[in-house]
Amino acid sequence: MSGLAVTRAIVIGGGIAGMCSAKVLADYFDEVVLVERDQYPEGFEHRRGVPQSKMFHTLLERGRRDIEAIFPGFHKLLESRKLPKISFGFNCALMTPRGWGRNVPVPVQRSLFCTRGFLESAMRDLFTADPRTTLIEQATATGLLAQPHPHGKFCTGISYKIRGEDQTQELAGTLVVDASGASSRAHQWLNAIDVAPPREHQLDPLLTYGGQLFKLKPNARFPKQWWWTHGAFIQRVPPTDNAAAHLIRQEGDLWLLTMVAGDGHDMPKDRAGIEAFLHRMRSPLIYDMLPYFEPLGELTSYRLPKNCWKYYEDWAETLHGFLAIGASTCVFNPNQGQGMSVAAGDAGILRSCLAQTNAPEKLPKLFFKEQAKFQRNAYQLACSNDLKFASVQGPRTLSTRLFNWYRDAITRAGAADPWVARNVAEVDLLLQPISKIYQPQFLFRTLFACVFLGWRQRPSAVERVAPQPPGPAVIPRRLRVTIRNSLGTATRYVAFRLGLTR
Ligand SMILES: Cc1cc2nc3c(=O)[nH]c(=O)nc-3n(C[C@H](O)[C@H](O)[C@H](O)COP(=O)(O)OP(=O)(O)OC[C@H]3O[C@@H](n4cnc5c(N)ncnc54)[C@H](O)[C@@H]3O)c2cc1C
User: Fold this and answer.
1) 86: CA distance to ligand 1 center in Å?
2) Which residues form the pocket of ligand 1, taking CB atoms under 6 Å from any ligand atom?
3) Which of 98, 301, 332, 348 is deepest in the core (most CB within 10 A)?
4) Which CATH number characterizes residue 17's domain?
5) For residues 268 and 403, what is the distance between their CA atoms, to the nearest angstrom?
6) Boundary-marking domain end, from 342, 361, 381
7) Which atom from ligand 1 is nearest to the alpha carbon of 140?
8) Residue 474 has pLDDT above 70, yes or no
């Protein structure tokens, strides 16, 4: 349709979704061109095209697996560059709305904790090593090219501008993928080619993030009893306590302080402001850690964009040869750290759709449907959690209220039943679909734990404001396995000596 003798896929934006999808497309198209508005930095530095990258970013286990499948060797490369191993309840304290959390052995242990720049730079190194993809840097996509088609329209390429040049250039392609993130201008691009954009759902979480890098002062040593050697996390408490903070160890000797301010809280602007903010938190734990650190660089703040869902899956228009992926289709509060995993997961879905067809007439509908099924988990979790906060304006439907009530019940049950805790963590880590929590076994165990165990396990009012977290409560997994194996061997030996077995 584009008049090309070869098939060419064009990807707009070289963030997580862009790099992953370009790599996936390279198996199915003769050429893949990635157009990125930034000049990629040499190392881990921040770049303008991803303004959120100065804020805390964790990569969940689901995202780690998906990126590893697309870029084999990704995790090893990160580890070779000094990646910290963080484990809630063992070396990082977590204060949830219900009080200090205890460790439950869940796959959260394999989620990655490092700066966004560090993570992206490893992906970039693996991406640029693949000769099948062409990268055009400092190139901003400015529009879509289209031709009429017997059924709808056909996207035949993009127009773009190289930084510093006046002229707009055109690039023809058989497939165009919008991976330009939360600031995507697809809405305007579609209007410009007379295609009505998909309808949208929006919800403003009314939150501002603040980030400050630190390093430990020379010779600084935490007190011996501080087992939270890799950081601390204090979450918001609905409906009114809209302030959160975390100070977490990153790659090398870096630490990142993140503050989240909602309605009624101002984002600090200097060191005195940071201290005042942290001192007001439910626990002064992070405030107490602060004197051990010295700041690196500036304190930056970032107003969170609205949660936004673009209904591409039931888009009335037909635009063949056009896809949108990652945050360009669905943006949500990063409270649960799911955004990059969704972007990488979308690329995994693209790969399974491409295995069925790479025909530009068939691929978009198939892909948008599958992508929506996957993204809906994270979007629903983020929006329903935001609606717990009184300041957020949005319809609190019966289903939202029931969902939030059930999620709270699950959290309470999880404190008493490790099976529930492990399974709900897998849903939060996007390893299981959200439908898992409605399975009969889940419902039964939640109900049972809440009625018979949960009430006893509720944190007391005193515990809720306890200034310091309890030590690790669960025996580490390796020790548990050793004890179980030794008991097994001892039992077998006794049975053998008693002549019960041969
Ligand atoms: C404060 C904050 C904290 C977050 N924390 C986490 C977290 O802990 N864990 C997590 O998984 N996610 C987190 N996220 C979400 C995460 O940042 C995004 O979901 C993720 O980056 C989306 O990836 P993407 O590739 O779709 O978009 P992006 O990563 O934003 O990439 C978009 C790319 O497109 C380029 N681009 C844009 N427009 C054009 C154009 N016209 N032409 C060419 N190139 C263009 C940009 O330069 C950029 O490189 C957080 C977000 C915020 C705001």
Assistant:
1) 23
2) 12-18, 35-38, 49-50, 52, 55-59, 140-141, 179-183, 209, 302, 304, 326-328, 334, 337-341, 343
3) 332
4) 3.50.50.60
5) 34
6) 381
7) 42
8) no
Question: What pLDDT, in 10s, does the model give residues 348-397?
Answer: 999 999 999 989 999 999 999 999 999 999 999 999 999 999 999 999 99
Do 142 and 262 lie in one domain? The reply is: no
* 109 pLDDT above the threshold of 70: no
Q: Let me know whether 196 and 325 are in one domain.
A: yes
Entry pTM: 0.90
State mean pLDDT over 83-110: 77
Q: Compute the average pLDDT of residues 421-429.
A: 88
Q: Do 175 and 40 have their domain in common?
A: yes
**Full DSSP string of 434-467:** GGGGGSHHHHHHHHHIIIIIIHHHSPPHHHHT-S
Residues 217 and 324 in one domain: no
Rounded CA-CA distance 381/307 in Å is 11
Token couple for 49: 């095209």
Residues of the domain holding 187: 8-50+116-202+307-381
More confident residue, 110 or 96: 96
Q: Is residue 32 part of a domain?
A: yes
- Distance CA(370)–CA(377), nearest Å, equals 12
Q: Which of 38, 52, 190, 207 to mutate to test the pocket of ligand 1 (most atoms within 8 A of CB)?
A: 52
Q: pLDDT-derived band of residue 480, with 50, 70 and 90 as boundaries?
A: low
Q: Identify whether 184 is part of a domain.
A: yes
- pLDDT tens digits along 394-420: 999 999 999 999 999 998 888 778 888
- Domains in the chain: how many in total? 2
- Return the residue whose CA atom lies nearest to atom 21 of ligand 1: 340
Contact 330, 19 (CB under 8 A): no
282 DSSP 8-state letter: S
Does residue 476 fall inside a structural domain? no
Comparing CA positions, the residue from 356, 348, 354, 353 lying closest to residue 326 is: 348
Query: The CATH number of the domain where 296 resides is what?
Result: 3.30.70
Among 303, 322, 357, the domain-final residue is 303
pLDDT digits (tens, 9 = 90+) for 208-267: 999 999 999 999 999 998 989 999 999 999 998 999 999 999 998 899 999 999 976 789
Cα-to-centroid distance, 326 and ligand 1 (Å): 8
Do residues 160 and 197 share a domain? Answer: yes
Q: Is 187 in a helix, a strand, or coil?
A: helix
Residue-by-residue DSSP string for 130-157: -TTEEEETTEEEEEEEEEE-SSSEEEEE
Residue 76 CB neighbour total at 10 angstroms: 12
- Ligand 1 centre from 187 Cα, in Å? 17
Q: Is the pLDDT of residue 461 over 50?
A: no
